[in-house]
Amino acid sequence: MQNPVVTGLMAYGMSGKVFHAPFLEVHPGFQLHAVLERSKKLAEKDYPQIKSYNTADEILNDPAIELMVINTPNNTHFDLAKKALLAGKHVLIEKPAATSAEEVRELFELGRSQGKKVMIYQNRRFSSDFLATKQVIESGKLGQLIEVHLRFDRYRESIGPKKFKETPVPGSGILYDLGAHLIDQAISLFGNPQRFHKTLGKFRPGSQVDDYGHLHLQYPNHLNVFITVSLLAADPQPGIVIHGTKGSFIKSFCDTQEDQLLGGMMPGDAGFGKELTGKEGKLTIVSDQGEKISSLIPSQEGKYMNLFEAVFQTIRHDQPYQIKEEEIVMQLDLLEMPAQ
Question: Do 152 and 285 reside in the same domain of the chain?
Answer without folding.
Answer: yes
